């Protein structure tokens, strides 16, 4: 089978354009809410302050116990959400309570 046929080049070109279009996929607010609820283990009443760079989507999840800053991989460089949009894997949100500092757990008191 020859790989130099015009049809092969056309198909590879269409595939490349299609995949390049996926590089800017951002999760919907409903998806962000679901990801935060899974991470936090409690109901999220709202999502706000959603912003993205080329690798991550950042947002605030509001719950009954307070607000949380959350991050989920997205975009071309993050890749996890792009792959997840094809159903190959599930992205994860990482959330920490607003004002909690670095998110590094404090050492146990002895």
- Summarize the helix and strand pattern as letters: HHEEEHHE
Distance between the termini: 71 Å
Lateral strand order in the biggest sheet: 1-2-3-4
Overall 3D shape: elongated
Radius of gyration: 19 Å
Q: Count the E strands.
A: 4
Mean pLDDT: 73
Instruction: Tell me the strand percentage band.
Output: 25-35%
Largest sheet: 4 strands, antiparallel
Low-confidence stretches: 17-23, 77-85, 103-110
Q: What class do helices, strands and sheet pairing give?
A: alpha+beta
Estimate percent helicity. Answer: 25-40%
- Helix run count: 4
Characterize the structure shown.
- The chain is of the alpha+beta class.
- Helices cover 35% and strands 27% of the residues.
- It is built from four helices and four strands.
- It has a four-stranded antiparallel sheet.
- The longest helix is centred in the first third of the chain and has 16 residues, at 6-21.
SSE arrangement:
Elements: H1 6-21, H2 29-40, E1 44-52, E2 56-63, E3 66-73, H3 75-78, H4 80-85, E4 93-97
